[in-house]
């Protein structure tokens, strides 16, 4: 695996410690429904954190707030000390550079080749030269096992391949944080393992901070440093995966795990 | 009624002149309606009522008044305000403006049909708003609306004879002039009727070829 295409731990020692993501007193309502109610929540740099919990418990809302796809009704959100909310559009754009996201439905750009899906943002956002961006993209495609698909259109790929391109696309921006929103939920069962293996590799070989929402409990157990159990917009239990999965303290956690495991 | 081939051959030089003008109106009018319609559609998305309200009123007004009235208005009233243009230019702008109020709705539907996930991916990659539109949203929206835009081009073709009313000598104008001078109506009108069918047919073939090319 060409490690030069991935975030390099040596170049950024500050990433290995300290708080990277911070939500303070964050409230998010949809109409009358309060999904997050004065939530405090933080993630340390380099950690792999998995959010679990029943649907509607607010896990995905947290990812979408961090990606600025939603605005909180109240509270502050920062990443690496930079303001996401409240913030000016300029501050938000700057802070957002630290964050990448992989979506359930891949959301590749169907009008672009696989290669251009990956080079588009490095060229137009980071101002990278085209050659440099192509080189980085080819390295990433090699890492995700799709070096031969540069010129393909997303529609010509399987779901699993599309999701691996989407992961490469997110990593091309060298974010400090990677948000993974149920990235295997839309995949055919036989394609899930390839994507999860790739994410395990990335978790093992890079210092990227990961925040996952997943229903793949084995995957969560595998890569997480910490598992957070959400219920009704609150963290009701947190701990290392061994503890959460083997000896959950909370009744709701036990109920939830027995339903999904 | 007698069919006179000599009247056909006598009309043909005028027919070619008229055909050229009709095609000019169609091509230039279409371009105006494509560009202006897209501009209206984008302006309607500006999150300010000070923009969307006037644009909405103007385009509703243009869409719901007859093209013929608009042609007369632009041709006879604008010069009084000191704006002068040739009859052909005025006609192209009028027909382009009129059809832009239809194409704007086509674009709007095309833009709304782009999945919200595309906007989200663009945000996640931090693409600037302008780049999101030009590289992600519009290419997908326009690909979807090519068939509908093409249908308006064919509709527009059938409205080009209205420009005769402001002295533009397109196909019908040439046919009428020839008829009045020679008292032969059947042949020139038949010739241009056939020409309209042939042009629409060729245009629909071109459109289908374009749609196939644009399929993912």
Automatic annotation (TrEMBL), chain A:
<dbReference type="GO" id="GO:0015424">
    <property type="term" value="F:ABC-type amino acid transporter activity"/>
</dbReference>
<dbReference type="InterPro" id="IPR027417">
    <property type="entry name" value="P-loop_NTPase"/>
</dbReference>
<dbReference type="InterPro" id="IPR003593">
    <property type="entry name" value="AAA+_ATPase"/>
</dbReference>
<dbReference type="InterPro" id="IPR030679">
    <property type="entry name" value="ABC_ATPase_HisP-typ"/>
</dbReference>
<dbReference type="Pfam" id="PF00005">
    <property type="entry name" value="ABC_tran"/>
</dbReference>
<dbReference type="InterPro" id="IPR014343">
    <property type="entry name" value="Ectoine_EhuA"/>
</dbReference>
<dbReference type="InterPro" id="IPR003439">
    <property type="entry name" value="ABC_transporter-like_ATP-bd"/>
</dbReference>
<keyword id="KW-0547">Nucleotide-binding</keyword>
<keyword id="KW-0029">Amino-acid transport</keyword>
<keyword id="KW-1003">Cell membrane</keyword>
<dbReference type="GO" id="GO:0005524">
    <property type="term" value="F:ATP binding"/>
</dbReference>
<dbReference type="GO" id="GO:0005886">
    <property type="term" value="C:plasma membrane"/>
</dbReference>
<comment type="similarity">
    <text>Belongs to the ABC transporter superfamily.</text>
</comment>
<keyword id="KW-0067">ATP-binding</keyword>
<dbReference type="GO" id="GO:0016887">
    <property type="term" value="F:ATP hydrolysis activity"/>
</dbReference>
<dbReference type="InterPro" id="IPR050086">
    <property type="entry name" value="MetN_ABC_transporter-like"/>
</dbReference>
<keyword id="KW-0813">Transport</keyword>
<protein>
    <submittedName>
        <fullName>Amino acid ABC transporter ATP-binding protein</fullName>
    </submittedName>
</protein>
<dbReference type="InterPro" id="IPR017871">
    <property type="entry name" value="ABC_transporter-like_CS"/>
</dbReference>
<keyword id="KW-0472">Membrane</keyword>
């Amino acid at each position: 695996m060409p490690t030069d295409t991935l975030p390099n731990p040596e170049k950024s020692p500050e990433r290995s410690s300290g708080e990277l993501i911070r939500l303070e007193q964050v409230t998010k309502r949809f109409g009358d429904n309060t999904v997050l109610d004065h939530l405090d929540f933080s993630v340390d740099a380099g950690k792999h954190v998995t959010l679990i919990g029943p649907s509607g418990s607010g896990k995905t809302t947290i990812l979408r707030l961090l990606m600025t796809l939603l605005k909180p009704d109240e509270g502050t959100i920062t990443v690496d000390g930079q303001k996401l909310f409240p913030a000016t559009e300029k501050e938000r754009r700057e802070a957002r550079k630290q964050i990448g996201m992989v979506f359930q439905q891949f959301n590749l750009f169907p009008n672009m080749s696989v290669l251009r899906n990956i080079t588009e943002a490095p060229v137009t956002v980071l101002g990278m030269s085209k050659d440099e961006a192509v080189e980085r993209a080819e390295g990433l495609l090699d890492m995700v096992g799709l070096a031969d698909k540069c010129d393909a259109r997303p529609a010509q790929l399987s779901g699993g391949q599309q999701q691996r391109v989407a992961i490469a696309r997110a990593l091309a921006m060298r974010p400090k944080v990677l948000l993974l929103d149920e990235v295997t939920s839309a995949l055919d069962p036989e394609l899930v393992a390839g994507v999860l293996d790739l994410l395990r590799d990335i978790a093992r070989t890079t210092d990227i901070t990961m925040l996952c929402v997943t229903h793949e409990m084995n995957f969560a157990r595998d890569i997480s440093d910490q598992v957070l159990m959400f219920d009704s917009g609150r963290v009701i239990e947190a701990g290392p995966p061994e503890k959460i999965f083997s000896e959950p303290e909370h009744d709701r956690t036990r109920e939830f795990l027995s339903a999904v495991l | 009624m007698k069919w006179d081939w000599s009247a056909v051959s006598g009309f043909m030089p005028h027919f070619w002149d008229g055909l050229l003008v009709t095609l000019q109106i169609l091509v230039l009018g279409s371009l105006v309606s494509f560009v202006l319609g897209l501009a209206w559609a984008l302006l309607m998305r500006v999150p300010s009522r000070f923009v969307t309200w006037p644009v909405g009123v103007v385009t509703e007004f243009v869409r719901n008044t007859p093209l013929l009235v608009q042609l007369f208005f632009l041709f006879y009233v604008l010069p009084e305000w000191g704006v002068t243009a040739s009859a052909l230019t005025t006609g192209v702008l009028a027909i382009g403006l009129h059809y832009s109020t239809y194409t704007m709705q086509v674009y709007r539907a095309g833009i709304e049909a782009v999945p919200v996930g595309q906007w989200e991916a663009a945000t996640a990659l931090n693409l600037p708003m302008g780049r999101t539109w030009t590289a992600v949203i519009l290419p997908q929206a326009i690909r979807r609306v090519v068939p509908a835009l093409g249908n308006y081009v064919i509709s527009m073709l059938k409205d080009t004879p209205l420009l005769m009313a402001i002295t533009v000598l397109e196909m019908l104008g040439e046919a009428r002039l020839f008829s009045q001078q020679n008292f032969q109506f059947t042949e020139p009108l038949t010739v241009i009727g056939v020409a309209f069918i042939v042009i629409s047919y060729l245009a629909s073939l071109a459109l289908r070829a374009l749609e196939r090319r644009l399929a993912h």
